[in-house]
Predict the 3D structure of the following.
Amino acid sequence: MTVKEYLTQAYRIDQRINSKLEQVASLRDLASKATATLSDMPHKPNRNTGSMETIICKMIDLENEINNDIDTLVDLKRDIVTMIKRIANPEYQTLLDLRYLCFKTWEQIAVDMGYSLQYAFRMHEKKRYGRSWKRVRDRFLAQHPLCEACQKEGKLTTAEEVHHIVPLSKGGNNATENLMSLCKSCHSAITAKEGGRWG
Ligand SMILES: [Zn+2]
């Protein structure tokens, strides 16, 4: 199970509890109608008491299931809290808390955290792809060890950073064709020209 699948479990259990609560509410509604029918028709009590019994048994079953689900959810949330607390970056912690413990939508998270929606997404993407990006980057740097911008001006400078030609936020990817080896000063010059975007 991936971390994301693990974290999403709490949300799925929460959804399951909600749907069972709705089922109980509609059964309770049905039971009150059955009671009304029962008092309206005193001569045919058997069928109605029978269906009443079925409804009540179903409600009890569902309520037991809900209690079990709540126990599972409480345990799971406790584990998720422990897992989130181990993350060093407090912003990631808040983001994961809001998403996987409070079950907020990305729009709500963006509002709560006072960030633009894009920023919230980007932070999550960075978290998700952080490790694989490091691998792509290191491999690209090994294959393209010189700053490509300096090279165009006839200078040989060791590249330290890898630049996305089309930014990830604008649909770019980590494919070799979209990458460029740069030294620190060329990279900050290009980034500044592009308006100080992320990554
Ligand atoms: Zn350079």
